[in-house]
Amino acid sequence: MYNGLYPVNIKPYTPPVRKKQQDILKDSENFRQNTQEADNQDLSSSKKSRQYTPEKVTINKVLNDFSNTIKAIGAPQETQEEVQKYLNLIEIQSNKEIPSKTIIKSNLKNAAYILDEYISTALNKPSKVVIDWVNAVLLQDISYKSKVSTNEETKEPQEPSQIHQKQTETTVNQSSEKIQTE
Predict the structure, then answer these.
(1) How far, in Å, CA of 172 to CA of 169, rounded?
(2) How far apart (Å, rounded) are the C-alpha atoms in residues 85 and 28?
(3) What's the maximum distance between 2 C-alpha atoms anywhere in the chain?
């Protein structure tokens, strides 16, 4: 049957019923509690993943990275030798019974300054890349006492200065062989 007032399946508009103020407060409290619980769960899980034990950085590792940086930059021989002198001073200091942190730090910064000067002249732009890297390294927990490394071939303990000395001797021998053949 046809209703004259309302056509079929069409009903009058009824505005939404507003909740009472108390119901709104309860809903907002429940929402806050749910979000706080979720946040606490996120924090507890992220705390677990962030906890780690920082390792001490050894001065040998820093010197090795510095030497690799020199090679990667492709600095000329004079710059390499000048920087290597500072690195040798650091090795000597780290081999002492009680190494001087201030001497090691200042020599690292001096060597970094020399490399940054070379980079600045090569790029014609000011560079502080190596200095910033050294400053970041110095902020870490560093073991300034040099540890004895082992030779892989003979398994004999060697001091880092002995390793560098052997590398220098082989370089000198190779260069003298080149001169003799010419």
Answers:
(1) 5
(2) 69
(3) 119
Distance CA 175, CA 170 (A): 9
CA atoms 137, 141, 144, 146: torsion sign: negative
Q: Which residue is listed with tokens 């300034």?
A: 144
Burial class (CB in 10 A: 0-12, 13-18, 19+), 115: buried
What's the half-sphere exposure (Cβ side, CA atoms, 13 Å) at 92? 9
Give the pLDDT band of residue 20 (cuts 50, 70, 90). low
CA proximity to 146, closest of 178, 112, 98: 98
Cα separations in angstroms, 46 against 51, 55, 133: 9, 21, 28
pTM: 0.53
> Which neighbouring-strand residues pair with 57?
142
Residue 78: half-sphere exposure toward Cβ, Cα within 13 Å: 2
Q: State the DSSP code for 3.
A: -
Q: What confidence tens digit (pLDDT) does each residue in 30-66 have?
A: 767 766 666 666 555 555 555 556 678 889 999 999 9
Structure tokens, 93: 């200091």
